[in-house]
Amino acid sequence: MNVKSKEKQENSAIELVIEVGAEEFEAAVDKVYRKNRKNIAVPGFRKGHAPRKIIEGMYGSGVFYEDAIDELYPNAYAQAVEQEGLDPVAYPKVEVLEVGKDGFTFKALVTVKPEYKIGEYKGLAASKEEVNITDEDVENELKPFIQRATRLVNVEREAKEGDTVLIDFEGFDNGVPFEGGKGENYALELGSHSFIPGFEEGVVGLKPGDEKDLDVTFPEDYSPELAGKAVVFKIKVHEVKEPQAPVVDDEFAKDVSEFDTLEEFRKDLAEKLRDRREHAAEHAFEDAVTDALIGVLEVELPEAMVDFRADQELQEYADRFERQGLPFQQYLQMTGQTLDAMKEQAKAAAEHQIKSEMALDAVAEAEKLEISEEELADEYKSLAEQYGMEAEQVKAAAPAEDVKTTLLRRKAMGVVKENVKAVKPKKAAKKSAKKDVEEEGASAEEAPKKKTASRAKKGTSKVGEAE
After folding, report:
1. What is the dihedral of CA 406, 410, 416, 417, to 10 degrees?
2. What backbone phi and psi angles, to 5 degrees, belong to 92?
3. Predicted confidence band at 427 (pLDDT cuts at 50, 70, 90)?
4. Confidence grade of residue 40 (pLDDT, cut at 50, 70, 90)
5. pTM of the entire structure?
């Protein structure tokens, strides 16, 4: 391999003209011949035994050239890049210029990291939300525990919205029962909207032992065999149950938590909520700092660099689905998304990520930040504990230079944050941020979904599929 020329091009690209000599090319051609001859039939020879010269005579002297080039150019490119001290940030654009028995020459357009510089990064302004926990917030944290402790109690009265009724039902289309329209001892929460419109409303007002013929019409967007049809459901009510909430006192706290008093329980809920909101607020603040930092970064990103990073992100995303047994194309069909749309989203995220890394690298360089061996060892120990691995396994999976880069950027962010001017977010943004924090903080245990809603989505019966 020989680099014949190296020229700087536009858009942070370097053009290399690389030559592969005759000896190396001849060896690759012969290797390709030996690999492929078993698939080539030549009259007068047993399949796989035709001499190379005979095959070249029949199909041309360059019959094996293309495969030989494919065999050689990746390694030749890698050697050239290393020799010239380049750090590619995208796939190269490769073009073969000459090829013959004396070897081949190809051109590689190598995209490298662009030049960039950072402006004044001390004294930047970034919004930071102040976290406050109100009594109302704590009451909202209590609600899921109260809901789980709520019991259904039989009552001898007419059913109303919010009650759960135990019913038998069967649907008839012109007097003929239809598939999926029957249920026995079915627990239906009135007001859950898990059945087709008009069904639950028709049960309101019935008492235990009541029977009724209920006229309803299926929605137009229902399954084809029932869409828009007027049918009759025969209903019998066995039980009416009303929700009975627990008394929220010290005994309640003992039943649903590890605490002996309601006051202790409330205090714990408030502290956990504060921790969640502060964690989310800190993340939001760091995002705001990053955006402000990018704002003083001077750089022109080459499109090839952004495309390459976006492709990497998409591939990792697809691999995660594949590991879970869901082909990525199937996921796209299920969600109604297109690969092009996802690529555009990935490109926007990739551009932001690249710029944030460059900005932090610039700060680390300006501050002359360094990572000591002790800091590196501590990080490996922390990663090992986090992932439940041995330290040596982590070191094998995460090269020291990559870990040092991460730590340097973390230090750089610390410098910027120490010197940032934290400002209160605008009122509208604050409301939105608070909602996001609460949604992020809600756990499955603290915000359980109603069983009836879950059941409806699974479609226990056809009647319950039309929500």
Report:
1. 150
2. -80, 155
3. low
4. confident
5. 0.71
